[in-house]
Amino acid sequence: MVLLDRSRALIPDGQIHLDPSNTGPLTGLSFAAKELIAIQSQITGCGNPHWLEGREAATEHAPCITRLLNQGATLKGRTISDEMAFSLDGENVHYGTPINVNAPERIPGGSSSGSAAIVAAGEVDFSLGTDTAGSVRVPSAYCGLYGLRTSHGKISLDGVHPMAKSFDVVGYFARTPEMMVRVGQALLGPIGEQQKP
């Protein structure tokens, strides 16, 4: 599947393709990840092209990416964030504002705006975002999606650019409750399980 990016949710050169490293409960599903989350061989730009200057590409995936690839999902893109994740609007002066396909005249909400917009547009099955003060909850509400701010510490923040470490979490978006459950079981595991990549 080739992304059309009708949601304008991807950063420049953000249309990437990483095949799963294994088969599992997410086999056949595609996802995108907010640009604050490290992808091997990619530079984390934090929504700001100047931030890229002089920085090196990641040497490994963030554990949340590794876990999803190990569960059979295919990574299809890196999505726009509010610059440095500092806003809840979803607008980015450098890369533009992703389109909220369910209300095109409205903002998508941020800072995980691209991750919400690309799922709402049906371009991927689910996506990863981060939430410090509402950055998954706000865009999921604005874009008519299901979104989850996970419990603090449930998903490793290794490889995730911090905003406020004591509040930051990785969260995710999907269009249906069934997909939320499916992704949650693969990403978070059963209650009490220690997370492994």
Q: What average pLDDT do the residues reach?
A: 93
Fraction of residues in β-strands: 15-25%
What's the overall geometry? globular
Number of helices: 4
Low-confidence stretches: none
The structure class reads alpha/beta
List the quaternary state of the chains. single chain
Strand order of the largest sheet: 1-3-2-4-6-5
Tell me the span between the first and last alpha carbons: 26 Å
Number of strands: 6
Rg, Cα atoms, Å: 15 Å
Secondary-structure element pattern, one letter each = EEHEHEHEEH
Task: Characterize the main sheet.
Answer: 6 strands, mixed
Work out the helicity level. 10-25%
Secondary structure: elements and pairs:
Blueprint: E1 10-18, E2 30-34, H1 63-70, E3 74-79, H2 113-120, E4 126-131, H3 137-143, E5 146-149, E6 169-174, H4 177-188
Parallel strand pairs: 2-3, 2-4
Antiparallel strand pairs: 1-3, 4-6, 5-6
Walk me through what this model shows:
The protein has 197 residues and is α/β, with parallel strands linked by helices. 18% of the residues lie in helices and 18% in strands. It contains four helices and six strands; from the N terminus they run E-E-H-E-H-E-H-E-E-H. The chain has helices at 63-70, 113-120, 137-143, 177-188; strands at residues 10-18, 30-34, 74-79, 126-131, 146-149, 169-174. A six-stranded mixed sheet has the order 1-3-2-4-6-5, with helices on both faces. The two termini are 26 Å apart. 50% of the residues are buried. The model has no long low-confidence stretch (mean pLDDT 93).
